[in-house]
Amino acid sequence: MIVAAIDRRERLEKIVTFAAEEAKMRGVKLHIIHSMHGGSRTSREEVEQAEDMLGEAERLAEKIGAEVETHLLMRGNDPAKDILLFCDEVKAELLVIGVRKRSPAGKLLFGSTAQQVILEAEIPVVCIK
Amino acid sequence: MIVAAIDRRERLEKIVTFAAEEAKMRGVKLHIIHSMHGGSRTSREEVEQAEDMLGEAERLAEKIGAEVETHLLMRGNDPAKDILLFCDEVKAELLVIGVRKRSPAGKLLFGSTAQQVILEAEIPVVCIK
């Protein structure tokens, strides 16, 4: 299993393309996930946007020829915990994430979710910009 | 081309195994590199240890069935710059590095070379613990 975690549209295509090609090459299934808090901290509009994003990711992965499933995680966890738990649950062999964001001043920063996931994951983590 | 950067023996096997399998699967060459400063800041003993390490890495990659070349970089650069320049030079499509080190107190830390490489590389970077 390969897990790809997508956060926003900006990097979706690069993350999904890499993960889908890798899944196809290895002959394993690709799980595409997006983590939200859920409950009162997540609006209906945010959920609809996330579902659209996952739908777009699914179509792209299918076009590449990967076997794919998408999952909108709303378990009250922070994203790093959601991603790490999900990888354990499906016994993932590889995790693909987006890294690098810009500060309001334009400086390149390392996202804290990405840092935590890279440090704590038991499997190789592919970082996509 | 796939580039694998090795720093010390501890993670060598995991880094080289992942990179060699990936190179074999993609039908591309694997370059294994180790960066040292060189000149008066690098002793003959350190160079010999690095050559031994690269030799070990080469034998492992060949055993897995990858086409492999090793390179001891001594260009006076810091490791992050060496790794990024080398990836450009060979037009690498994927970079494999080790991350995570422990502080003297045992706390998990993100190495600064790894952080810089992940943020600045133009290609996907695979992080191995």
TrEMBL record, chains A, B:
- What protein family does this chain belong to? Belongs to the universal stress protein A family.
Keyword Transcription regulation among record annotations? no
Descriptive protein name? Universal stress protein UspA
Q: Which Gene3D superfamilies match?
A: HUPs
Going by the UniProt record, its keywords in alphabetical order are: Coiled coil
Cross-referenced InterPro entries, in alphabetical order?
A: Rossmann-like_a/b/a_fold, Universal_stress_UspA, UspA
Lipid metabolism among keywords: no
Q: What start-end ranges are recorded for coiled-coil regions in this protein?
A: 40-67
Q: Which residues form the UspA domain?
A: 2-129
- Organism superkingdom: Archaea
